[in-house]
Amino acid sequence: MKKKHQILILITFILFLFIKAQMDFNPSIRVLLSIVDFSESTLTSSDYLAYGIDLKDLFRNYTNSDINYKGSAYIKKVKGFPYSISGSIEGQRSPEQKKFSCESNLNVLVLNVGMLNAYAEDDTVYLVAPMLGGLSYGFDTNDDLFPKAPNLNYDITREWFHENKMNIWNFVRSIDIKETDQFFIDSDGTKAKEYAITIPQGEGDFIWELLGVDAPDHDIKCSLYLDKWCHTRKVIFDLSYKTEGAYIAIYGNDCNSMEIYAPLPDDESFTCTIKRDGTNNYTNAYINNITYSTSGGNIFSIDSNGYLNYTEEGFKLELSDIQVKKNNEVLAEGYVKGRISKYENMGDVFENAGVDFSNVKVIDWDTIKNDTASFVDDVIEQARKNVDLFDF
Predict the structure, then answer these.
(1) What top-level branch of life does the organism fall under (predicted)?
(2) What is the DSSP code (8-state) at residue 43?
(3) Contact 289, 303 (CB under 8 A)
(4) Alpha helices for the chain (secondary structure H)
């Protein structure tokens, strides 16, 4: 009997060593365990970036559908303008039409200082200032301004992961996974090792069905960074098949942050980061940053705190503590509050806004970059003249 116990202990010990070796050295097993951990741990964490948000509803009914929005804005500390500005904003967005309108009516105390509007169609942006006699700019970004989000066919939940256990197992076995010598150090000091993943064309049908998109006609590449407990600390989706060097990264403990990076022509770049603010008691609170780096060495950025909450009509959105900076110089501060709702039978966005672009000359991006400063100065100077008439 004693000998049988010894043999059982030995077998158990060997089995433990085998499992540990698989966890430590078999990339496929580590990736599979990370997926299990994500479904059981990350999805249930209040720090998870999309916690409390129905992504299926958000993408289908708002991101990919016609919406109407209206709200209010407050702007202070505008460089070169010694007055605070308040105003109303309203507009519409139609991904089907690839059109967008945003009209703002600005006031200083009880005095109306004019309208400053923005519109977009396909890949072209228009900035219009009726207060200056219809002065406007248009420029072609050479990029789709209305990208479509995945039309999820299922909610991303623990149940979905459980129902697709065999699909996930077969998928992990069929994709190419390579352990690299690269590491990611999380904000809490945790070290995570990179696993480079290539999804060959033709694999992952159940994933593309989940996302509600057509299977890609090319390989998909991403990087997965796992800590020693197979907990995901960072995922990078390579978008070089669309734009060389572009990517989307989700990172942090329980995937609480997202970064979108896109290189632009002339050695310029655009970066957007969104981080869930777990210290705030609001339903969904975020810390946001948008940064545009120019070829001339200037860095323009917009920082804000964002709050999102669902209502019966749609959802409420608030951006507070907005700071617009050029390098380290604050150009303006303010906040925006609004409500976004679905809009059926919208009609033409531009006809609804009553806008006419027939006399607008669309110029190239380099020209608009060089002239934007003078355009903004003209708007501020005209607004100052309007206010000065009343000797405020």
Answers:
(1) Bacteria
(2) G
(3) yes
(4) 2-25, 27-40, 55-58, 158-163, 165-174, 205-211, 349-353, 365-388
Share of the chain above pLDDT 90, in %: 48
The Cα 217–Cα 202 span in angstroms is 8
Give the tokens for residue 298. 């200037």
Residue 23's pLDDT is 46
Lowest mean pLDDT: which of 20-24, 38-42, 134-138, 250-254?
Answer: 20-24
Q: What is the DSSP letter of 38?
A: H
Q: What is the reported pLDDT for 109?
A: 67
Quick one: average pLDDT of 280-294?
87
Question: Which pLDDT value is given to residue 143?
Answer: 80
243 touches 237 (CB < 8 A): no
DSSP string computed for 177-202: EEEEEEEEE-TTS-EEEEEEEEE-TT
Q: Which residue has the tokens 């800590």?
A: 227
**pLDDT at position 346:** 92
The set of residues, in sequence order, having a beta carbon less than 8 Å from that of 279 and lying 6+ positions away, is none
**Which pLDDT value is given to residue 188?**
92
Task: Indicate if the pLDDT at residue 83 is higher than 90.
Answer: no
Q: Give the separation between CA 160 and CA 155, rounded to whole angstroms.
A: 7
The DSSP secondary structure of 93-161, one letter per residue, reads EETTTTEEEEEEEEEETTEEEEEEEEEEETTEEEEEEGGGTSEEEEEE-SS-SSPPPP--SS--SHHHH
Tell me the angle at which helices 27-40 and 2-25 cross, rounded to the nearest 10 degrees: 90
The answer to whether the beta carbons of residues 332 and 77 sit under 8 Å apart is yes
| Measured distance CA(341)–CA(121) in Å, rounded | 21
Identify the three-state secondary structure at position 36: helix
> According to the model, what pLDDT value does residue 15 have?
43
